[in-house]
Amino acid sequence: PTTNPYQAARDGATDAFVTKINPKGSTVVFSTYFGGRNPGDRGSSIAVDQAGNIYLAGETNSLNFPTANAANPIFRGNVDAFVTKFNADGSGIEYSTYFGSTDNDRALDVALAPGGMPWIVGQRGVQAFLIRLSFAGNAIEEQDLYGGVYGATASGVAVDSSGYVYVCGNTQSPNFPTLNALDGSFGGNRDGYLRKYNSVGVLQYSTFIGGANWDD
Questions:
Q1: Which of 25, 142, 170, 195 sits at 20 to 30 Å (Cα–Cα) from 184?
Q2: In the predicted model, what is the mean pLDDT of residues 26-38?
Q3: pTM for the predicted model, two decimal places
Q4: Are 155 and 126 in contact (CB under 8 A)?
């Protein structure tokens, strides 16, 4: 079901979508498709700022994925990550950008800094990434790519009121990069991890969290 849609019709076999429901849950304010003509467009995470603007992160393999005021308007790989900022009533987008490489890139979570800038985590090939876009969405201001010999996945990100950034995920790399670690030893087949960055993307600590078996 669509209501006041930005994109009224599905363009490919699989499109992302955004639906906004009123506070009582009784009415759909808007509901829209969002994607290009290829079959692999998916939304994976959403965040909302104090003004009601909506930030959607996910992945696409569409050359014609809708972009605007983009940090990177060019599709670069088989799968690229994307971030799109919709205005509060869903009638337009403030920006929409690919960010990717010749590898497969997937955005898995998005969180907002106190000033409204989005931090995005996900996976590039087998490595985890953390990226911060500018307020206008037209530049990548901070980024980190990490993982170790067998890579890692970054599946969650949160930002506190002071702007510190917390990233969690899992890794199968015994040489996963740690710093000021609560647990600096790889515990098993797969360990969880937690990393903390300051507001400009400088790593404060990175630690394994896990035991002898599989930890996510």
A1: 142
A2: 94
A3: 0.94
A4: no
